[in-house]
TrEMBL record:
<dbReference type="InterPro" id="IPR017871">
    <property type="entry name" value="ABC_transporter-like_CS"/>
</dbReference>
<comment type="similarity">
    <text>Belongs to the ABC transporter superfamily.</text>
</comment>
<protein>
    <recommendedName>
        <fullName>Cell division ATP-binding protein FtsE</fullName>
    </recommendedName>
</protein>
<feature type="domain" description="ABC transporter">
    <location>
        <begin position="9"/>
        <end position="230"/>
    </location>
</feature>
<keyword id="KW-0547">Nucleotide-binding</keyword>
<dbReference type="InterPro" id="IPR015854">
    <property type="entry name" value="ABC_transpr_LolD-like"/>
</dbReference>
<dbReference type="GO" id="GO:0005524">
    <property type="term" value="F:ATP binding"/>
</dbReference>
<dbReference type="GO" id="GO:0016887">
    <property type="term" value="F:ATP hydrolysis activity"/>
</dbReference>
<dbReference type="Pfam" id="PF00005">
    <property type="entry name" value="ABC_tran"/>
</dbReference>
<keyword id="KW-0067">ATP-binding</keyword>
<dbReference type="InterPro" id="IPR003593">
    <property type="entry name" value="AAA+_ATPase"/>
</dbReference>
<dbReference type="GO" id="GO:0022857">
    <property type="term" value="F:transmembrane transporter activity"/>
</dbReference>
<dbReference type="InterPro" id="IPR003439">
    <property type="entry name" value="ABC_transporter-like_ATP-bd"/>
</dbReference>
<comment type="function">
    <text>Part of the ABC transporter FtsEX involved in cellular division. Important for assembly or stability of the septal ring.</text>
</comment>
<dbReference type="InterPro" id="IPR027417">
    <property type="entry name" value="P-loop_NTPase"/>
</dbReference>
<dbReference type="GO" id="GO:0005886">
    <property type="term" value="C:plasma membrane"/>
</dbReference>
<dbReference type="InterPro" id="IPR025662">
    <property type="entry name" value="Sigma_54_int_dom_ATP-bd_1"/>
</dbReference>
Amino acid sequence: MNTNSQPIVSLIDAAVGHGKEPVLAGINLFLHPGEFVYLIGETGSGKSTLLKTLYADLPLIAGEAHVAGYALHRLKRKQIPYLRRQLGIIFQDFQLLPDRTVYDNLLFVLRATGWKEKKHINERIERVLSSVAMLDKAKKMPHQLSGGEQQRVSVARALLNEPKLIIADEPTGNLDPDTSEEIILLIRELVKSDRSVLMATHDYNIIMKFPAPTLRCQAGKVISVLKPTL
Ligand SMILES: Nc1ncnc2c1ncn2[C@@H]1O[C@H](COP(=O)(O)OP(=O)(O)OP(=O)(O)O)[C@@H](O)[C@H]1O
């Protein structure tokens, strides 16, 4: 069997929200390996709610959902760290630990996900930092970096455990237009035959410049759009 033909994300008649009342319902969504998909919609339309449900920060309210081989509709709390290991998550505000260096930020994640051997840890950190051209900044503290550099580090952090799915929630929200383009190019490069990217954005210029299949959260539904307008 070619496992690449299996979707990395599949939602069937799913509902997401913060309590019992759904923000989005009747969601049918499939994301296959190698796909890069935008998630758009007005402020408060449910983009973050959907993404948080995919990484099990919020429980699924109804329906079925599979993410990277985990069934969210019957996920046990103790399985959440294993699900998260299959995912790379990139946030608008970078979320680097402010009290330690770039290297130690990455080290923290590897240790927390069970990496023990110093040599392997070092090799992995060097590899991901090189892939975002930040190896020379490994000893810097986050506050010594520009916003774009901090976001590069958080892209590197997302890559540490070779995730199947990258979830990016407004990754360019705090960046100027040129730096935003740089980061999007970097994130688009992460799409591989066994990996996909789902990216929430408000950035119309980015969508126009780098077109890709687009889903819109609107009036409690997720719909596929052909000509995105924000
Ligand atoms: N922690 C929370 N508790 C209860 N309701 C929430 C919570 N966070 C968000 N909501 C509500 O859920 C709805 C969807 O919010 P969400 O943050 O998913 O929207 P969004 O599309 O990501 O918006 P933005 O583009 O501003 O980030 C909104 O009505 C919001 O008020």
